[in-house]
UniProtKB/TrEMBL annotation:
PROSITE patterns: G_PROTEIN_RECEP_F1_1, G_PROTEIN_RECEP_F1_2. This is G-protein coupled receptors family 1 profile domain-containing protein. It comes from Rotaria magnacalcarata. It is found in: Membrane. SUPFAM superfamilies: Family A G protein-coupled receptor-like (SSF81321). InterPro entries: GPCR_Rhodpsn, GPCR_Rhodpsn_7TM. One of its GO terms (cellular component) is plasma membrane. Residues 43-174 form the G-protein coupled receptors family 1 profile domain. Its main location: membrane. It comes from the Eukaryota. GO terms for molecular function: G protein-coupled receptor activity.
Amino acid sequence: MNNSFSFNNDDVQQTEQTLSSFDLRFFLVRIFYPCLLVWGTIGNALCLRVLLSKKFLKNSTCQYLAVLAVIDILFIVMRSSKHVYKLFRSTPIFNTSKWICRILTFFSSALAHMASWILVIVSIDRYLIVTSRYRRHSSSVNRVFCSTSILIAVVLLCNLYYFFILGKKIFTFC
């Protein structure tokens, strides 16, 4: 008799855990990701507006942060739109074709890597400016353009493997 009560109690706990994970999933998909898409895009656009003003455009740190804001907007759109897409379609966007899966995974990963490395570049740039290693040498526009171009090329090359591994029988996430 006591055994059956314990079994029923376990079922109730499992049902409560399932419901709580369902509530969290509902909250994330229906509320959080659409809000992140809207407010993240608006916030980064406002940040861009400030950073690209004449007052801040001369500073290399502000230029890097403007690049970061653009990368962040693209990343938010890539990641959140996947969840917003689920609201209107029954199949995830990644399951529509192998190439869509490959392209979205490639760009999502590349944007995440670029955002991380831009912060590293900003830190190095600030260190070199503070220690006055290249305060007088080249203009900040050239430095930012060159370092950002090199970063984009390296990150894109490093993430090319997604086009070769996704969709194979070993990997099931496409």
